[in-house]
Every structure is written in structure tokens, then in C-alpha cells.
From TrEMBL:
SMART domains: cNMP (SM00100). It comes from the Bacteria. This is Crp/Fnr family transcriptional regulator. It comes from Rubneribacter badeniensis. Keywords: DNA-binding, Transcription, Transcription regulation. Gene3D superfamilies: Jelly Rolls. Pfam families: cNMP_binding, HTH_Crp_2.
Amino acid sequence: MEAISLFVQPKPLLSKIIERAVAENNLKAQPLTLNPGGYLFREGDDIRETFYLTRGLVRLYSDTSDGYTKTVFFHKAGTLIGFQGFRPELDRKPSILNAKATTKVEAFAIGAEHFGSYLKTHGDACYFMAQYLFEMLAMQTREAVNASIYPVLQRFSALLLTLAREFNSAQAPAIIPFGNEELAEMLGVHVNSITNSVVALRNTDCVERQRGALVITDFKKLKSIAESLIVEN
């Protein structure tokens, strides 16, 4: 099932290449650990590393002019984050995004210049990296299209189904451990839109509100609201 594209999925062949290269010291990497709430980088930082996650979940997001934030992606273990260092020195700009640990995170920091040299001389790694970056671009494109076509209630229903899948909660009752503000940030909408959507879903007996979480009580009804944003594999 695919719905809202928020979670970057690892590409096993690329992950295997990177992990082997780090283990054999062909890619020089510094291990690091972050507690929930810690940052890999912030908006405005001059990033010279690419980070390979080995554990945990990192939220990539932007700050908005009205004081809110918009989630771009959640990165899972086995994915890469941070590519500003690949730009030529004269064209390099500070990060426009924040990368914040949602859970405890373990990662390798790989110097971008060194990583770039490695990709130039290892064709398989370069090819799988291109696939990975193209998939991220496709995810952003799909989300932009969805945001322009589908109403908030439909996209919100699809988001809840996506989160249930990512948290391995495929059957009711399924707990979605986020409050309304966090869910609004994921969709890039005002919190009032999420509050209204929760009320609508409660009225159709799809969800129930718990403190700091939502509980999906009827997957079938929720899928019927999400409609064409859900694609069954």
C-alpha cells in the first residue's frame, strides 16, 4: 500500500555497498549518535558531510514564514541524508532544511568530497546512488501533485494509513503516536485543518483521539475516504 510519500525507503543494494565500504575503510566515516530532538544539521549550516543512518528516524523539515514547519521527509535506517557538499565550492549554499532526530539515531558522517571521489571510481555505487536520488525527487513530485489535487481530509486519511504501515500497525485499533500539530506539519497545512479532519473522521467512526495520539478504529472506512491516494500492491 502506498499513500502519502513521507518515508524515504532504503535501497538494499546501495546500503550494502556503503556499509561494506565503511567496514573496509574505503569510505572514511565518523560514527555519531543523537538522542531524540538532536540535530544532524540545521537551516543555515554549511554542510560538508553526507549522513548514512544505521538506526532510528530523522525528520527533514523546513521552517515557514508564519512560524510553522513543514516535513519534507522522514529518513529511516539504511538511507542517506545531506547532499549540499556535492555542489561546487563557488556554488555551495547553506542548508535550507533541518534534520532532527525523531528517535535515537546512529549514523556515519562521510565527508562529501571523499564520498564524491568514491562514487566517481565505483560505477555500481554511482548507479544505485542515482536511483536513490531520483526516487526522492519522484516522491517530492508526487506529494506536490497530491497537494494540488486532493482535499485535506483525503490526504490526511492517506497519511494515517501510511503512518500505520510504517509503525507496523495494520489492524485496528492502530495507534498513531502524533498530535494534531505534528500531523499538520507532515501535510504542510494549518493545525485547524487537521483538527477539522479529525472531527470528520471521528464522526464517521474511523478514528478516536487519545492523549497525544490518534487511534485508527476502522481501516476499511478510512481507506474509502482516502480513495485514489491508496494503491494496493
